[in-house]
Amino acid sequence: MKMTRMRNLLVALAVLAFIVLLVLPSTGWVMRTQLRMLFSTFPEKALTLLSGIKPEILGLSTLEGESIKARAKQLLSQTAQRYPEDEKTQIALCVLTEAYAVFSERLRDLLDRFPKSSLLHAAILRYDYINRIRFDRKERYLLSESPLPKTFRQPDPKHLAAFEKVATNGERIDPDNAFFPMMRAVALFASHRDGEALKALLQASKKQRWDDYVLDESEGVLRLWETTFGKAYGLTKICLLEMRLEPYPIRLKELAYVVAYKAMELERKGKFVEGLEIRSALMQCAKLMREQEKSKLPKLVAPAIAHIATVRPKGEFLPEPTEKQERGKLIQIRFINYLKQLGQNEAAKWTQAELQANQRVREGLMKQVQKSLILDELAFVWSMNLTFLSAVAILLAMWVGAGFVLSVERMAMRKKQIGAREQRPFRLGAILLFAIWLVATIWLWGIGAIKGIWIVYEVAITLEGFDGFGLPTDLLQEFLLTLVAIGSLTFAFAMGLLGSRKGIPMSRAIVQGIWRWSLLTAATIFLLYAATLIVTSVWEGRVYLPI
Which of 60, 330, 331, 349 has its C-alpha lying 20 to 30 A from 488's C-alpha? Predict the structure, then answer.
């Protein structure tokens, strides 16, 4: 009687927890996603394949991988067709479905539809900058006192001309945005038209805004994906946002090196005012990036650009090699003293304030990263959620199977077709329960209820190993799968054996024991799942997004 009350209480608590967690907005979407992942990880596999990961990594054949990709592209295209005039959606469709080699060209195809779109012009420039406008200038090596390479890369003149045209049109459409003249300066420096490039830089420094539209593009990508496949959780969201999020701001340091070297050349000739003017313009652009940019990476790169602007005034040699941080401080102190020697006290105060602000921003962002969850932790709690949920699903399936066997026995007894101690139905029942366990386990294993989260996790960290518990990713993954597969069977059958009484055949005792104990066990595990689900929903809010 007490056992019955306890079972009823635990089952009632589990049902109540299920309803509450499903209704609450913060946990409901997580539970719905994980319930879906018990039966299908199509969105996770599709995202992985669209990211460029080979099908064999997911255990798929080339044909299966192509089929999943084609289906995903079809679904995304159908969603995008509902918003033909929404530039964010159309750009997002290109980002998610086009091959990277032709990505810039496909974006350019949209120019006829959205000729006045600042977002589209900015996207073309960012991706072109990474893929096509890769160039080397000797100034970078001379400024840092590094050996010159044997060869220098130079972009195709046609690509440079197309890049400059897009930058010029973007500046006309969005005249107060420093991003576009800065990109035009990139094209001009790559073409060795340094005088024009410096003029473009000075124009950029006089603007009031900096917006590369990365955040707008990322919002469009995330919105298109979630409209098509449902709400994205932390790991898939990171994959979506980083899928085509190229680190173009880091490349802007190349421009900064050339500008600082040009300033140094002027200062060596005694043209201190002219040299300071372009150094200040570079720092002003860095200030706009730091203050106006909505995404995080430019905010982190801006201090580096500002620092480069302070390097080697008058061509003085760099400090002796020491710790990077100490050397950086010494370079900045030298530059402040240089400004004071020129009588530029106001410029010295402004520069010092800027350098301090840069340091605060950098430290603030790094603290934010440190306080946020790392992917290891988030992947682990999702895996535990799916482990518990898989175990509950298997135990419930076995409970239903045992109940079916017992109901068949009762019907047969009412018809007086078998005796109360007839063993054959229970032998068949025990076989049926084992078959249910085997099918359920293979189903969950094959579909990837647990593996689904690891697929996205591996992509998110570029297939690096997970060091939780000191175990590599594959070993921990197999451990969790084995825990569900063997653990659920062993526990259920053990409860069946414990339920046996003297004089009752073993097969019947197993069936009755599973029917009595599986539901209780499933309810207990679901309560554990509920606790870890709450942790997951809280941790989802701590994910550091790369925008």
Answer: 60
